[in-house]
UniProtKB/TrEMBL annotation, chain A:
Obligatory cofactor(s): FAD
Name of the protein in its database record: Acyl-CoA dehydrogenase
Gene3D superfamilies cross-referenced by the UniProt entry: Acyl-CoA dehydrogenase/oxidase, N-terminal domain, Butyryl-CoA Dehydrogenase, subunit A, domain 3
Annotated organism of origin: Rugosimonospora africana
Protein keywords: FAD, Flavoprotein, Oxidoreductase
Recorded family membership: Belongs to the acyl-CoA dehydrogenase family.
Domain Acyl-CoA dehydrogenase/oxidase C-terminal residues, every copy: 215-350
GO MF annotations in UniProt: acyl-CoA dehydrogenase activity; flavin adenine dinucleotide binding
Pfam families per the UniProt record, alphabetical: Acyl-CoA_dh_1, Acyl-CoA_dh_N
Keyword Cell cycle: no
Species lineage: Bacteria, Bacillati, Actinomycetota, Actinomycetes, Micromonosporales
InterPro entries (alphabetical): AcylCo_DH-like_C, AcylCo_DH/oxidase_C, AcylCoA_DH/ox_N, AcylCoA_DH/ox_N_sf, AcylCoA_DH/oxidase_NM_dom_sf
Acyl-CoA dehydrogenase/oxidase N-terminal domain sequence ranges: 27-92
UniProtKB/TrEMBL annotation, chain B:
Annotated ranges, domain Acyl-CoA dehydrogenase/oxidase C-terminal: 221-378
InterPro entries hit by this protein: Acyl-CoA_Oxase/DH_mid-dom, Acyl-CoA_Oxase/DH_mid-dom_sf, AcylCo_DH-like_C, AcylCo_DH/oxidase_C, AcylCoA_DH/ox_N, AcylCoA_DH/ox_N_sf, AcylCoA_DH/oxidase_NM_dom_sf, Mycobact_Acyl-CoA_DH
SUPFAM superfamilies: Acyl-CoA dehydrogenase C-terminal domain-like (SSF47203), Acyl-CoA dehydrogenase NM domain-like (SSF56645)
MF GO annotations: flavin adenine dinucleotide binding; oxidoreductase activity, acting on the CH-CH group of donors
Organism: Rugosimonospora africana
Keywords, sorted A to Z: FAD, Flavoprotein, Oxidoreductase
Domain of life of the source: Bacteria
Record family assignment: Belongs to the acyl-CoA dehydrogenase family.
Residue intervals of the Acyl-CoA oxidase/dehydrogenase middle domain: 110-209
Name this polypeptide is given: Acyl-CoA dehydrogenase
GO cellular component, one term: plasma membrane
Highest classification ranks of the organism: Bacteria, Bacillati, Actinomycetota, Actinomycetes, Micromonosporales
Co-factor(s): FAD
Pfam families named among the record's database cross-references: Acyl-CoA_dh_1, Acyl-CoA_dh_M, Acyl-CoA_dh_N
Amino acid sequence: MSTLLYSDVEEDLRASVRQALDRPAGGDAWRALATGIGCAGLAVPEEFGGAGASWREAAVVAEEVGRAAAPVPWLGSVLGTAALTTAAVGTAAVDTAAPLSAGARDLLPAVASGDLLAVLVLPLSTPPGAPVPATVRADGHALTGSVTTVADAQGAGVLIVPTPDGLYAVDAAHAEQTPVTALDQTRPLSTVTFSSAQATRLGDGAMAGAAWAAALRIGAAVLAGEQLGVAEWCLSSTVDYVKTRYQFARPVGSFQAVKHRLAQLWVDVTQARAVARYAAGCVADDDPDAAVAASLAQAHCGPVAVRAAEECVQLHGGIGFTWEHRAHWYLKRAKAAAIALGTATQHRAALGDLVSLPPN
Amino acid sequence: MQTDELTGRVREFLAAHDPAGTQRLDFLRARFDAGLAWVSFPVGLGGLGLSRAAQPAVDAAFAAAGAPDNDPLSIGIGLGMAAPTILRHGTDEQRQRWLRPLWTGEEVWCQLFSEPGAGSDLAALGTRAVRGTGPDGTDGWIVNGQKVWTSMAHQARWAILLARTDPDLPKHQGITYFVCDLTHPGVDVRPLRQITGEAEFNEVFLTDVWIPDGYRLGGVGEGWRVAQTTLMNERVAIGGGAVPREAGMIGALSRTWRERPELRGPGTHDALMKLWVAAEAGRLAATRLREQLAAGQPGAEGSAVKYAFARLNQEVSGFELELLGADGLTYDDWTMRRPSHVDWENRSPGYRYLRAKGNSIEGGTSEILCNIIAERVLGLPPEPRADKDVAWKDLPR
Ligand SMILES: Cc1cc2nc3c(=O)[nH]c(=O)nc-3n(C[C@H](O)[C@H](O)[C@H](O)COP(=O)(O)OP(=O)(O)OC[C@H]3O[C@@H](n4cnc5c(N)ncnc54)[C@H](O)[C@@H]3O)c2cc1C
C-alpha cells in the first residue's frame, strides 16, 4: 500500500492551486488551473504530452477545488480524461486484448495541454457498477439520443460518449445543450442531446465498457478528495467563527455542546482524509483494491461532507442561513456531491458484493 | 537502515538462535540484546534507533520463522504506557533496570493512576507520598492512599504511580511520578468484578508503602508533565495498532454474516455495511496516524483514533447481538475469573457487547477526549474553571 501522507510535491501543487483559485473574480480560474499550473495533463502519460503524474495528484487538486467550492469543471475533466487514458493505454483491470484506441491517443495531447476540455457524457447520479446506458444510439458515425444532468459539459470542447456498442467522441458544437437549474450552482448541469450528431468512433463496446468503469471508479476516488476539501473548509470556518462569536458573555465555542459536535466532526474528517488518500492511491496505482477503495471513499466521505456543511450552517446561526454567507454554497455542493456518482447507500451495496457480504 | 539490511539482521539472529531449540525467555532476552525488540528504541535498550515504521517488518520476520513472541496482549500497559515514559523521563539506571524484563514480559506492569475521587479529573488525586527513610536507611517516600480500576494489578510486579507530594500547591503542580514495587509490604490488591462477570481490574490499597527515591521518574512536582507522556501513548495504544482489514469485532460480525445466511435481512444489510465502512475508515485513519508519527509529524489524531475505536466497537457489538436474535439472548459464562488479557476473539458476542462499554471510559472517557480535541487540536476556548489556581487541599470535593 502506498503512503497515506502527502508528498512535498503534492503540497507544492496544493499551494499553487489554492493561489490560482483565490485570484479575484474576473480572472479565468479554469485556464489558470488547467494550463497555467498544468492540472489538465497531470494524470495523462508523458507520451501524450501529459505530466505523467497520477490520480493521486488529481485528488489533491480536487481537495482545493472543494475547499474553495470553485465553479471549475474539474470533476468533468477528470471523468473525461480517465475515459480517454483508459481507451488509449488500458488498465490492469481491463482485458487489453482489445486493441487500444488510436482515436483516444489523437485527442489526448490537446486534452493534456488544457486547450481541449473533454467531458464524459453520463448522468451525474450514475451509481457504481451501472452498465453503459443505452440512451444514446449509434448509426454508423452518427449519434442520436439524450443524456440528462451531465456535469461540466457547458465549457467542453469534446464530448466522450459511451454507448453499449462503442465509445465515441463528438465535437461539442455538434450537440445541443440545455442547461438545468441545479441545486449546486457551482457545478453546472445540462441535458445533452444528439440528433444524428457526427461522431468519431474511439473503440468498440468492450472498450466503452472499460473506459466507463474506469472513469466511474477514478471519478469516485477523486470526488472523495473534493468532499474532503468541502468538509475541511466547513469545519475550519466554523471553528474560526465560534471562537469569535460571543453570547452569554463567552465565545459560543467555549460551550461544551458546541465543542463536542466540532470535535466529533474533526474525528470524521480525519478519517475522511485517510480514506480519500487511500482511494486516490489505489486508483493511481491501478491497485486490485481500487473498486473497494473508491466505493469506501464515497460511502464515507460523501456523508462526512454533508454533515460538515450542515453543522457549518447550524453553528453559524442566522448568518449561516443567509445568501450572503458562503456556507450555502458548500451545503449545496456537499449534498449534490453525495448524490454524484452514486449515493452512500448505493456504494455500501456495491461494497457488499465486492467484499463477499451479500444482502441475502 | 534499509528494510533489506534490517531483515538481514533478523535472519542472522535467527541463524544464531534457533527458535525451536532455544528457551522462550532466553530467546526473547537475546532478541532484546540484539536491538531487535523495539527497533525505534535506542541502541542498548532493545532497539537500533530506527523509525517506528521499521517495526512491522521485524515482527513479521520473527513471526514467519515461528519465533516465540512476548505475548503483547498481556503486557500492553508495560509496552504501551510505562515503557515510553521510562524511556523519555527515566535515568540511564532506571532504563537499564526496567526496560528489558518489561519487554520480555518477565515483569508485568500496571497503572496506578485513577482513584475513587479522581477519574476524569485525574489531577485531583489524593494518594500522598511523603519523604521518609527506608528499611535500609536510604532516602525515599512513604505512600498512603487508594487506587481504583487498576487493570491487571493482580498480574503485575511493577506499577507506574501518581501521588501527591505537595497539597499546598494547585492540583497540577503538587504531583510526582513514581514506580512502585508491588511486592513491597503495604500493597493490597483486591479484585473488582466488572459487568462482564470477570475481574480484569482491581482496587489497590497502599498503606505505608516504601518507595526508594531512585524509583522517582522526573523531578519532584513534575508528575503531571511526565504523566502526559503516559496518557498520550495510552490513547495511541488503545485502538491504534496495525491490523489487517476485518480484524477485531468487525471480523467476527462479518464471519457471522457469511456463515449464517438465515440471519440476513434487507434492513440489516445496509446497517452491516455502514459498520464495515466505519471500521475500514477507522483502520485507515490509524494507519495514517502511524505514518505521521513515523515521519516525526505531530500525531494529534491519537485522540481521534481512540474515540472512534470506542464508538465503533460499541456499535458493532450491539448490532451483532441484535442480528443474532435468539442467540443474542445468551451469554457464555458469568464465572468470576482473573483474566490476563481481554479476549475479544474467543468470548461470546454478549461478552464483546459488555466489554466494549469500557472502551469509552478507560484511557480517558469519550467526553474528555472530545474536550481535548476541541481545546488542544481545534483551539476552542476552555470552559471557565474554578480549580486552576486553588491549592489542592482547598478544592471542593
Ligand atoms: C475497563 C477499565 C479499565 C481501566 N483501567 C485503568 C487502569 O489500569 N489504571 C487506571 O489508573 N485507571 C483505569 N481505569 C479508570 C479510567 O481511567 C477512569 O474510569 C476514567 O478516567 C473515568 O473516571 P471515572 O470513572 O472517575 O468517571 P468520572 O470522571 O466520574 O466521569 C463520570 C462521567 O462524567 C463525564 N465527565 C467527567 N468530567 C467531564 C467533563 N469535564 N466534561 C464532560 N463530561 C465529563 C465522564 O465522561 C463520564 O461520562 C479503567 C477504567 C475501565 C472502565
